[in-house]
Amino acid sequence: MELNLAPKFAQKIFEGEGGTYYRWSSAEYELLKEAKVGGGRLVLQPRGFALPHYADSNRIGYVLQGSCGVVGMVSPNASQEVVLRLKKGDIIPVPSGAVSWWYNDGDSELIIVFLGETSKAYVPGEFTYFLLTGTQGILGGFSTEFNSRAYDINNEEAKKLAKSQSGLLLIQLPEGHKMPHPCKNSPDKLVFNIDAALPDIHVQNAGLLTALTAKKFPFLGEVGLSATLVKLDANAMSSPVYAADSSVQVIYVAKGSGRIQVVGINGERALDTKVKAGHLFVVPRFFVASAIADGEGIEYFSMITTTQPVFGEFTGKTSVWGALSPQVLQASLNVGPEFEQLFRAKIKKSTILVPPQN
Is the CB of residue 351 less than 8 Å from the CB of residue 206? Predict the structure, then answer.
């Protein structure tokens, strides 16, 4: 089985006064279709407004840049929207079918990357959006007769309802237009700032790893996903790991650069390449991945297609090597007791995040 794991940059699919939307194409990156995952990136300019919409896929939004973002969300059967303030480092799950809008009320770009699973998507490997308004909106798709009867308005009012918004997807609101204020009581339940969270692993001169699951952030259970943020210091390493529960990882490089190796079926090196900010790549089920940062360090955010991921580790106290009995390890490696003991001692002292070599 040959899989092309080469990292890809997103393609621009829409640009307007309000901002730009980018998507990773499953036609160009077929592994997205195979793994049933997808990604997109939203860049909102000041006063940029993403018209209300819903999608056919569960997603996680991660705020890469900005301190003055606002999102409104309406869950199915909800009686009113929830409005939330967003800032850099925030993670917000977006369930499929939930209506959301996004607004930048700051004076600099608001950038959000969306990663999700597409097992029920119309186009495997991509998100399909359904707009409520605008030139491709649902309102405009219905005839004047249907709209007038549905909302108990006359024909002229129905035409105004469907046709007044001539924008598409992303528009820029006029100065002075007032938007709803964020809710006071719900942000902690619906938004989690992974940048500010206490890391699960922190190794001096190596970096940190923060895992976010439904146990820490229950709203993730609504989308059936989890997330991980890794920040490697200059020339540090993230040791080889694999998802032991058959989940898939989609990884977005948020900052810096480094080298990635992924080993898959039959011990073949499926990927060995340099990645940098803006790259997205997929680690298929059971494949083993490792990274070494360049001199500037690297930060990457990953979405995992399960709420409680289980990882197999090859270094550290819970390494599979350390768990195997001495006799099995000697036979498996075809080495004598002396080398086996040396290797086991090294494994016990090792960590998931490895500082640079002296």
Answer: yes
Q: Can you tell me the distance from the alpha carbon of 51 to that of 304, in angstroms, rounded to the nearest whole number?
A: 28
In terms of DSSP bridges, do strands 69-74 and 99-104 run parallel, antiparallel, or are they unpaired? antiparallel
> Among residues 337, 317, 316, which one has the least CA distance to residue 327?
337
Distance, CA of 179 to CA of 172 (rounded, Å) = 13
Q: Say how many residues make up the chain.
A: 358
Whole-model pTM? Answer: 0.94
Q: Is the pLDDT of residue 189 over 80?
A: yes
Q: Which residues neighbour 357 within 8 Å (Cβ) at sequence distance 6 or greater?
A: 235
Phi and psi, residue 164, nearest 5° = -65, -35
Say what the pLDDT of residue 20 is.
98
Positive or negative torsion for Cα 308, 110, 165, 177: positive
Query: Dihedral, CA atoms, 65, 69, 74, 75, nearest 10 degrees?
Result: 30
Residue 137's pLDDT band, with cuts at 50, 70 and 90, is very high
pLDDT, one tens digit per residue, over 209-223 is 999 999 999 999 999
**Site of tokens 């405009």:** 140
